């Protein structure tokens, strides 16, 4: 089948797979090789091999917040190019229907049988399953201002205060809309953002974007960041989500969450010259096991009162974990690593952490970041270079659309 014929057929990605009678791997291997391969594989192994698992789009909350982290994120921050509220509302309706399809492994829209027009879907995920794709959308305070809805702006949806060691760059800071596309396949995540942005041509422009990755040893294992430490161990308890994570006040954001992003450069060459002892003291956790100092296992309770043989605090007073914990605040963290070639000035890796976190109130982040302040030993190895505060919409009911309560 030629490429043109392929798109001309009114066929969803899933239908295509069904017709082909094989999974994504089969397309690459050829049908007979695939049959031989799957002949030996169990049903379970087949699913995890070809990314069959779907995360439901509809629900009380948006997916991609409490969803167990996927391997890849493609994050895109957009600015409004139009201040026409009705056009943007229509765009959000279209985005909703696109996302609902993409998370099920479908093309964004059936393509007309007219090969003289560009296909509706850009096509790079044809033959690829959903890979747990989630797409999470939020808007900044500036979005409401530009569309004449400042009266609906919650007091909490405002810029973060300046923190002492900030090195924020304008190009990575602010923006009106955020799209977070997480999945277990980098191209599936990219495709999702690309097709949404394409639909919004003339209405939105891209401000900045960043791809991020994680190595996941197993579904319930904590990934390691580029400093080699398990990152994401301590999270708010599920029972506390209404106190820590979800907005519960009546209004358009009820069931949503505040989404804060920080692009944080990590200086690997300095870190890699640091002794293991110093590295572990920076966090107050052991590198290999991820256990807090004085304990054996990753999920053992952090005990800030433990003392070493000299009577000094075992978890150092300037360690990241102690300072974060002593703030008393909690946030849900979903951090991804990034690696973008080399820094042209230093000739070193251009790497860092795409620090993504969700909370009921941005004050939670502010409280922690203030307590980390200038004291955090981690500061020797990092710089915050990008920032943004967004309101991640509540989930969508079937027949509804993202941001419906804000627009209507
Ligand atoms: C490049 C920057 C950062 C790195 C490499 C990093 C790494 C880590 C690591 C390895 C842990 C211990 C394991 C865990 O519980 O996940 C941790 C804990 C934590 N981090 Fe970070 N972090 C960074 C930035 C931040 C920022 C900006 C915040 C918030 C303002 C933050 C808040 C926390 C919190 C709340 C904990 C849990 C503390 C507890 O045990 O109660 N981190 N971080």
What report would you give on this structure?
There is one protein chain. This protein has 14 helices and nine strands. It has 408 residues and is of the alpha+beta class. It has one domain. A hairpin with a 6-residue loop joins strand 7 and strand 8. The N terminus is likely disordered. Protoporphyrin IX containing FE binds next to strand 5, helix 12, strand 8 and helix 13. This is Deferrochelatase. Keywords: Heme, Iron, Lyase, Metal-binding, Oxidoreductase, Peroxidase, Signal.
Task: Give the rounded overall mean pLDDT.
Answer: 89
Which percent band covers the strand fraction? 15-25%
The secondary-structure class comes to alpha+beta
Helix content: 25-40%
Low-confidence stretches: 1-13, 16-47
* Tertiary shape: globular
The total count of strands amounts to 9
| Multimer state | single chain
Give every kind of bound small molecule, once each: protoporphyrin IX containing FE
| H/E element sequence | HHHHHEHEHEHEHEHHHEEEHEH
Distance between the termini: 46 Å
Q: What is the rounded Rg? A: 23 Å
For the largest beta-sheet, the strand count, sense and barrel status come to:
9 strands, antiparallel
> Count of helical segments?
14
Domain count: the total is 1
Domain Dyp-type peroxidase N-terminal: 62-213
Enzyme class: oxidoreductase
Cofactor: heme b
Catalytic activity: heme b + 2 H(+) = protoporphyrin IX + Fe(2+)
